[in-house]
Specification:
It is built from 12 helices and 12 strands. By secondary structure, it is α/β, with parallel strands linked by helices. The strands form 3 sheets. It has an 8-stranded parallel beta sheet. Helix 3 packs parallel to helix 4, helix 9 runs parallel beside helix 10 and helix 11 crosses helix 12. Bound molecules: glyoxylic acid and magnesium ion. GO terms for molecular function: lyase activity; magnesium ion binding. This is CoA ester lyase.
């Protein structure tokens, strides 16, 4: 797979030690725990951008859903203005990456989004997020257009592409989407559009649902009397899709993300949803309100205890022979080549975030 030109060697993943799992292919290993969405045409949100650059990994100027049709041009122009005038935003040296979510490929706005943004702020734009991707052909179209616009603008740093998984067809084609271009940076789950496309009977933007339950089996006493207590347990609506997305991303060496959690007033449930995604392999999530940035930064960073434990396992296995093979007992648990690999994932992530 060709590597995006113009990156320095330190921007790329390296395996840490013998026995580490396959590194992601050579896409920039820049932290992107929170992808913070702002509507560039909303003056209140736009005003917050400069102060957010030091606190968030990614700022994303949203041009698609949630931006009114009669505001599309204003949002695009305002994004150009914000990107040009905000120091520390976007480009190889930016403290926060700059992404944009363009309009969908079947909309009347997307061509103008790309032809306006790339010549004007292509040197700042790190990633273009493409919504409602259905298959590899959508990525091929964006890839070709970006290549033409980059060449015309004389840009030598390729803009990467991120796809939102939010249609049933997109989910069916997830592996080919991930491998459709060397520009592919990652995928996000889009639970709101996906729910609608699947004709799910929900009305929320991500998260759980109080009706999606399993009920505990009835208990009987020794006299054969049925117990009254039948607790129910809420289930995760998104487990299947996240797991499928994570596998496809891992197979192609790109990054998986949970998408939006719409109930800003419920930070606890947001944290739970983000943590499930982190444990399943995601590297980040969207933030729709500044309060969700802190949640994502915390949840998508390994905890001090996890890093400490991971380092102990690595040290214990390296002590015996130093090549990461074999087995040791630590705190009564067996650790071997496979647990070493899991621990290296956490240690590698901690090092990346600390760099
Ligand atoms: C995001 O775009 C979603 O549809 O959930
Ligand atoms: Mg959507």
């Amino acid at each position: 797979m060709p590597s995006p030109a113009g990156r320095s060697a330190k921007d790329f993943f390296r395996p840490l030690a013998v026995g580490a799992p396959e590194p992601l292919r050579e896409i920039p290993a820049r932290p992107s725990r929170a992808i913070h969405f702002f509507d560039p045409s909303n003056p209140k949100m736009a005003a917050k951008v400069p102060q957010l650059t030091g606190t968030v990994d990614v700022l994303l100027g949203n041009l698609e859903d949630a931006v009114r049709a009669d505001n599309k041009v204003a949002a695009r122009e305002s994004l150009v203005q914000i990107a040009s005038s905000t120091s520390g935003l976007g480009g190889p040296d930016g403290s926060a990456q700059l992404w944009t979510r363009i309009n969908s490929l079947d909309s009347p706005w997307v061509l103008d989004d790309l032809t306006r943004l790339i010549p004007a702020i292509g040197d700042k734009l790190d990633v273009v997020m493409v919504p409602k991707v259905q298959g590899a052909e959508d990525i091929a179209y964006v890839d070709r257009l970006l290549a033409q616009l980059e060449a015309k603008a004389g840009l030598d740093r390729p803009i990467l592409v991120h796809a939102i998984l939010e249609t049933a067809r997109g989910v069916a084609n997830v592996e080919e989407i991930c491998g459709a271009s060397p520009r592919m940076q990652g995928l996000s789950l889009g639970p709101a559009d996906l729910a609608a496309d699947r004709r799910m009977k929900t009305t929320r933007v991500g998260g759980g649902h109080p009706g999606y339950l399993v009920r505990q089996d009835p208990t009987t006493t020794s006299d054969g009397v049925l117990g009254q207590e039948r607790p129910t347990y809420q289930q995760d609506l998104w487990h299947y899709t996240i797991a499928r997305m994570v596998d496809a991303c891992a197979m192609h060496g790109i990054y998986p993300y949970y998408g939006p959690f719409g109930d800003i007033s419920d930070p606890l449930a947001c944290e739970d949803q983000f943590r499930n995604a982190f444990l399943l392999g995601c590297v980040g999530a969207w933030s729709l309100h500044p309060s969700q940035i802190e949640i994502a930064n915390r949840v998508f960073s390994p905890s001090v205890e996890d890093i400490r434990h991971a380092r102990r396992v690595v040290a214990a296995l390296n002590r015996q022979g130093g090549d990461g093979t074999g087995a040791v007992m630590l705190d009564g648990k067996m650790e071997d080549d496979a647990s070493l690999k899991q621990c290296l994932v956490l240690v590698e992530l901690a090092e990346q975030l600390a760099a």
